[in-house]
Amino acid sequence: MNNTKVILHDVGLRDGLQSISKIVDTDTKLKWLQKLIDANVRYIQVGSFVNPKVLPQMADTDEIFMRINNGEVRKNSDTILTALILNEKGMERAINSKVDKILMGVSASETHSLKNTKMSVDEATNRIIEIAKQCRAEGFEIQVSVQSAFGCGFEGKIETQKVLSIVEKYVQNGINNISLADTAGHANPLAVESMFKRILNLDSDVELACHFHNTYGMGMLNVLAAINSGVKFIESSFGGIGGCPFTKVPAGNVCTEDIVHYFNREVIPNGINLNQLIELSKDAANYLELELPGYVYKTGAINWN
Amino acid sequence: MNNTKVILHDVGLRDGLQSISKIVDTDTKLKWLQKLIDANVRYIQVGSFVNPKVLPQMADTDEIFMRINNGEVRKNSDTILTALILNEKGMERAINSKVDKILMGVSASETHSLKNTKMSVDEATNRIIEIAKQCRAEGFEIQVSVQSAFGCGFEGKIETQKVLSIVEKYVQNGINNISLADTAGHANPLAVESMFKRILNLDSDVELACHFHNTYGMGMLNVLAAINSGVKFIESSFGGIGGCPFTKVPAGNVCTEDIVHYFNREVIPNGINLNQLIELSKDAANYLELELPGYVYKTGAINWN
């Protein structure tokens, strides 16, 4: 482990809840958001500005930000609230909502790209770069992603060069906050290390993020590989909830409190209040009437040092 | 990953089934054993010679070996069938059953030792060493273990020195086939690396084995740390079934087919037929009417290279 400055970016309220058919009411989402902030999770993905007909679970994202901006949520001085957009319309809503950091991306899989955006990877990349530039011009922080970066549920192997060519385009356009998302859960540690190394060879100034699903039980191994490769942001979700509903074998995200617990056991400073996170996941499991994929919220933390 | 000669030792038929209240009939156990052999799992823990009143799930271990010895199971030339014993009576049964390798151990936790054996750690260690010597004198291969080696559900922290002093006694008595069992699931990668390094410093000829539970979601990380520390045998179970019924927070073992799948993704030779293992775990989940903790038997393997 060569890096203790890793930042967890919790995506449970977005990638987590969009995968669950039950729609969580807005008050509950705000309560969970407050718990994440109070537990000192610095980066929190609040929702996505997408078509409410396609993802009714995210229909209240504008309302949530309105209530945040009206002071209903107590942020810490270093809290960053993020949200995902897919297109120009989403961008307008995100800008109106005063999101701290706007997230957007493309898939490296032509099939996944067509299913999600009705565009080729090239077309989608050009469009997202334009949107990213507009967000910046409006004064917003951004992060761009490459989805299906380590394999695709539909296509199988995704050539590393395909991912690198998207990254290269981002970098050439001055965008170096880049997340690789393992949408299908196909990543393995060697692939993670190789990919991030090649990106840093391309441009050592890229600020790297990663997003792993634990589809095949390798989630934590991939997190460790990413940290060892110099990745700054780990996208994970409380309770491990989540999974893109538009991939072939959906499965949970790596679990925020399990990572925090692992950090604590390895004496890696992280500043997060584990017990509050555990309470949140217990609360969510009760509300959703589901057993969530995470481990530590069920067992409790190891209580000796 | 510095070692590709790791051998998986499947403990599902013993540590797995003893944790499940439903008693699996003998024919089914023999069928599952055959599937493990046919999948080229080389080391397979078949059962334990314990008091059937305490663990009725293991009551047919003598019968299983009798049927194995009668030729009902087709072994490969390198198949090693193992079984656990707790005391002299178990030893006699194991010897009569012509077990290929006899397993026995002590707990490093005084509380766990008293609960399991009504003896202190010292007393239990002396007794197990005598039993191990007798097994060897009868011509049997053996492996001794230290349970609760990385923490105890009752006591919490177990001093490394306590574990090392047991290991030292084993080695001083000429026994260098040693497994560390993380009974409570408390291990983390740094602790694993540190412990195995100190054992190899004590005696570089020790043939190391490990046994991890995935109680807190760190199972695969610990397996990786053990492999990187030079451990030869990984004890895991098909479907991830298992968990000592006499510890405080029981949870599944690391899962054999998930490890094989991980090895395959990392191109680590292992000779095991993953699809047959997946079929076994599906079969077991159906029979037991349980969702097992493993991942890959539910999702299927990633099917590209």
Please outline what is shown here:
Two copies of one chain form a homodimer. Chain A has 305 residues and is an alpha/beta fold.
Describe the 3D structure.
Two copies of one chain form a homodimer. Chain A has 305 residues and is α/β, with parallel strands linked by helices. Chain A has a single domain (7-299), classed as Alpha-Beta Barrel (TIM Barrel), CATH 3.20.20.70. The first copy, chain A, has twelve helices and eight strands. The first copy, chain A, has helices spanning 12-16, 26-38, 61-69, 88-96, 110-117, 121-137, 160-172, 189-202, 219-228, 256-265, 274-288, 296-299, and strands spanning 7-10, 43-49, 80-85, 101-107, 141-147, 177-182, 207-212, 233-236. In chain A, strands 1-2-3-4-5-6-7-8 form an eight-stranded parallel barrel, surrounded by seven helices. The two termini of chain A are 19 Å apart. The model of chain A has no long low-confidence stretch (mean pLDDT 95). The A-B interface holds A 151, 156-157, 185-186, 188-191, 214-218, 220-221, 224, 249, 251, 255, 258, 261-262, 265-267, 294-296, 299-305 and B 151, 156-157, 185-186, 188-191, 214-218, 220-221, 224, 249, 251, 255, 258, 261-262, 265-267, 294-296, 299-305.
What keywords describe this structure?
homodimer; 305 residues; alpha/beta; TIM Barrel; 8-stranded parallel beta barrel; 12 helices; globular
